[in-house]
Amino acid sequence: MSTIKEGSKKVIVHIALILGLLFAVLFVFFQIYLPGYTNHGESVTVPDLENFHYSEIEKYLEARNLRYEITPDSGFVADAQPLAVLKQNPRPGAKVKRDRKIYITLNAENAPLIKMPNLVNSPIKNAQEVLANYGLIRGEIIYTPDIGHNVVLEQKFRGRSIKEGFEIPKGSQIDLVVGDGLGKQSLAIPNVVGMDEEEAEIAIVGSGLRLGRINYVTTDTVPKGTILKQLPPSGIQAKTGELIDLWVSELGVDINF
Question: Which residues belong to any copy of the PASTA domain (predicted)?
Answer without folding.
Answer: 41-108, 110-180, 183-250
